[in-house]
Amino acid sequence: MKLAGKKFVVVGGGGLIGSHTVDLLCKEDISEVIVYDNFFRGSEENLANALKDPRVKICDFGGDILHSDILNDVFAGIDGVFHFAALWLLQCHEYPRSAFDVNIRGTFNVMEACVKQSVARLVYSSSASVYGDALHEPMKEDHPYNNKNFYGATKIAGEAMLNAFHHRYGLNYVGLRYMNVYGPRQDYHGAYIAVIMKMLDAIDQGESPTIFGDGSEAFDFVAVEDCAYANICAMKADVVNKNYNVGTGFRTSLKELAEKLIQLTGTDLPIQFAPRSQATLVRNRIGDPTLAEKDIGYQAQIDLEVGLRGLISWRKNHKEEVAARRRAAGITD
Q1: pLDDT, tens digit, 9 for 90 and up, residues 197-211
Q2: d(CA 83, CA 125)
């Protein structure tokens, strides 16, 4: 699809990957971007720069994907939809019924609205969680589903429904299976923060970063900016009814990650190892992005060290900005 003059809805556009995708859309000659988000996980703060662009607006009627009638109205006259809205892995583990409602029923609503309103193309955020633990590395798109958790199950269901919608209704879509995403605007509050943020929290407090297991578990850490770029590539591409890995193709063990964070923060803290307790999490997952490069023109651009430097810098600045706002508001605790 050529983006010039087109109108887009970004479902979950206030979140990590969604807000960065909105930023990239603003660099294109598009006509309009509507952010459809209930801001349960995302925030309007993530859209601060994008909202300076008069072509970007937040949906006036809320942004809950369980409200199919509102989705249907918002999608009227829209050319392309990006679908990011979902409960995250550990939320799905603790609240499987909500995981079904949001990630499966809500995704069905998005697809149905796309069909009813003749949306030309849908880009769906899937996940490498569909693969579970790697049976071989790197994982190509034909790697078997080896998932054992509710989050991965909801993403498998989403991919299966998309395939069915394509064959029954002709829905034009592409799915993207992100590896381990990190970067600016990543949540560092609450119970569901990612491993990088947990390690940085410990370092900030002068404590050793903790690794559950022996640190040999390895993952493909991909910068959020690269994930946003993959979404733009997928919307522009001609391929349909396919799912692609979005990653770097490089493996980084948790021990290597902790060592790199210690180095980049200028500390000399030792790594602490603890018994592995998260049985639902995978041990190894490295994706092969070759097919995504061939079919949609995606290739990761950001080296891990460069990406981590950017994340650490953003995190430091953001914490300072939050603290300044609290002081200005007279909040001292």
Answers
A1: 999 999 999 999 999
A2: 6
